[in-house]
Amino acid sequence: MRFSLPQRILWSSIVLVGMLGAVTFTAGSSSAVAGSSSAVAAAGTGSAVQDFPDFGIPVATQREQAPAVRRWVEKRFDTVLPRLMRSVGIDMWIVITREYNDDPVFRSMAPLTTYSSRRRTILVFYDRGPGQGVERLSVGRFDYDGLFEVVRTHNERQYEGLRQLVEERDPQVIGVNTSARWNHADGLTAHERDMLVEALGDDYAARLTSAEMLAVGWLEEKLPEETETYRHVQRVAHRVIAQAFSNQVIVPGVTTTEDVRWWMRQRVVTLGLGKWFHPSVSVQRRGGLDDVERAADGGVVIRRGDLLHCDFGIVYYGFSTDTQHNAYVLLPGETDAPRGLKDGLRAANRLQDITMSNATPGVTGNQALERSLTQARAEGLVPSIYWHPIGYHGHAAGPPMGMTDYQEGVPVRGDYTYRANTWYSVELNVRYPVPEWGGQQVRFALEEDAALLAGGWDWPDGRQTEFYLIH
User: Fold this and answer.
1) What is the per-residue DSSP string for 83-110?
2) Three-class SS of residue 469?
3) Which residue, of 46, 143, 298, 330, has the greatest Cβ tally within 10 A?
4) Spatial CB neighbours of 330, under 8 Å, sequence gap ≥ 6
5) What is the residue extent of each domain of the chain?
6) How is domain 7-62+223-470 classified at the architecture level of CATH?
7) pLDDT by residue (tens digit) across 207-225?
């Protein structure tokens, strides 16, 4: 397995220490393969013990991640937020969130040491004007590692403190997170909105407006240093897949798809990473699967000649990844996948190129979808496109390019335009007839995270252009 772009080299200049030391597995030895097989088998029986091969990449501890995350949040407050507030005409943004019922934007505004908003958290951002920046206030008791100036009140009198704060600053347009169209911008609950309106009184309540495009813009835009760190995040995600799709984990004729998906999930936990969806691992094979195999509770037994596919994501440094890669299990005597399978993968790579050439700043997601489908079909491809933004959330804020059930365009959100310094999961598939499989239509699905930068598209850690090969 290799990636076509060498951006991973950029990470070599970043020093990471504190690699997890709990790994007891020796990669590459004959016992390593056997031990890996027994490890996934044990996982299926509920065993608490599971061995893993050497990871080979330093993974930052939480303590090491925390200062970087805090620097990014503070810099975003100082540089990104003022510009966004002025672009949408909001001079005060009020974010109200409650413990374990967080507003979708809260996590991106908080340090790593904060697991959730506290009781009731009221954050206020007030634009003092050009050259003066945005004032950051927290009404209550918590400053979140010094990111906010505290307007101290008793827990039961926060709205009184908020009213006084608003009167002193007299904002003309007050943004709150309510939206019928953008789930990432709809964090204000009905109860808290009622409390807010009552506390502000008629005059200031009349100045409330949806901050939906401010919230979306805040969540989608990334700093250059965040993108550079995302290269490392991607490399870690790719490494887990590479180990899962290898003989360190898979023994043809023994290992099941369920074994592999649970191995991947447990691997994420042992590395101290977060997760946002359960991995999936599936099989395509010549002639298809029989009914017994499809119905097996323990997953499909992986056999020689199978085409494997995974969908896998992690959360690291607060950033989500979403990757779909493919592997081939070699038949006896084979040293590579059949030509028809490789051609199908190249067709999926071509669809990636087409979609990215049409998704440029100023173009809407729906425009890019229509142009990409038209171009792909003209080239003889059988495409399906369902891009989504990624970053602080797995399915993040920003313009989608299609959905699996919206190949004619996504209402409202698909009419939003692409912008520089944003990240996307380039998710799609093509169906391709494989001669070696008797002309069987095979689905080649790829998903790779990419950054749209000022100079164009960039793969943070390359993309899959060849199959992982399992011997």
Assistant:
1) HHHHHHT-SEEEEEEETTB--TTGGGGS
2) strand
3) 330
4) 304, 336, 337, 469, 470, 471
5) 7-62+223-470, 91-210
6) Alpha-Beta Complex (3.90)
7) 999 999 999 999 999 999 9
